[in-house]
Amino acid sequence: MTEFKCRGNEKLYLSPMMDLFNGEIVSFGISNRPALNLVLKPLTEALETIRTEAKYRTTIHSDQGWHYQHNTWVKTLKKNRIFQSMSRKATCADNAAMENFFGILKQEMYYGEELVSYEELKRKLEVYVDYYNHERVKAKLAGLSPIQYRTQTSQTAA
Length: 158
Prior knowledge:
Blueprint: E1 2-5, E2 11-19, E3 24-31, H1 37-53, E4 58-62, H2 66-69, H3 71-79, E5 82-86, H4 96-109, H5 118-134, H6 146-157
Parallel strand pairs: 4-5
Antiparallel strand pairs: 1-2, 2-3
């Protein structure tokens, strides 16, 4: 989860779920407060993808925030046979892939920009995640976007 400042002392919280295979953001939640539902909603959405595509053990990695230690989160993972992995305390490098995404996102569409309202920033983030998944190419994905890479890989495997 990451926090953004908005105009008028408002805050926006973003909680994405990333597939480490291709770096795709498979689901995300946006809220004006860091409540439990902010992480549960994207988890529920990601479970739909996991159920249809998982052939191997699924692991969800997070930091040690209270959301990820909450009984509802833990029970949801266990119920769906998902292995829970957590970073070591105060060790952001353990969650490097997500921290890298947050850095790229903020560098490309937030830092240096004028603060906007919560609703406007929410819209901008939704547009950015779509761009990131569908259009933003990565060298480590052979110059493809995350979704292009997943699509090409699944066609090759078929």
